[in-house]
Amino acid sequence: MNTKTKKPGLSSPERPGFFRYTAAIFYDVMLIIALFFLATALLLPFNDGEAIQSPILFPLYLLSISFIFLAWFWTHGGQTLGMQAWNLHLISNTDAKITWFQAFTRFITALISWLTFGLGIFWCLWQKEGRTWQDINSKSHIVFIKKIKLNKTK
User: Fold this and answer.
1) Domain residue spans in the chain?
2) Residue 10 DSSP symbol
3) From CA 135, how far away is CA 122, in angstroms rounded?
4) Phi, psi angles (nearest 5°) of residue 10
């Protein structure tokens, strides 16, 4: 984040701790699970009260829903709801807004990270800059921005 555009009441960005990072992921997973219920419920009236019966189409449908949800937040403000709760912000390595291509790369790499039992997430513990696989592949990273209480004395 450029210091010239820094908002009042916010400190300089720093790397988030592992607990804060995973807590934001947990919040977002809870939201995505609720979104899956809603997305499935929307299909029921059109399919005789059943979800998509295809073992390939239904997971692709849910993955598409989760990508659109996450990518929209990432490209429009750089924060999902879980990231907002934990004061985390996703920025491009060039300090620009995240593009849809970066969001797609981040999403696919995060899926691979989780399919390897979270190795891509734990990677930040060993990597010298503290970046996950999705940070590295999408040329973006998550920062923690502390909120500072401003003294308003009269």
Assistant:
1) 9-144
2) B
3) 12
4) -120, 140
Which of 136, 130, 23, 41 has its CA nearest to residue 80?
23
Count CB atoms within 10 A of the CB of residue 153. Answer: 4
d(CA 83, CA 88): 5
Asked whether the beta carbons of 123 and 133 are under 8 A apart, the reply is yes
Q: Measure the N-to-C terminal CA separation of the chain; round to a whole number of Å.
A: 31
Rounded-to-integer distance, Cα 43 and Cα 21, Å: 33
pLDDT tens, residue order, the chain (154 aa): 444 444 544 455 788 989 999 999 999 999 999 999 999 999 888 887 777 778 899 999 999 999 999 999 999 999 999 999 999 999 999 988 999 999 999 999 999 999 999 999 999 999 988 899 999 999 999 999 887 666 666 5
- Quick one: angle between helices 18-43 and 57-75, nearest 10? 130
Enter the tokens of residue 48.
């005789």
Structure tokens at 15: 């790397």
Residues in the chain: 154
25 vs 21: CA distance, rounded Å: 6
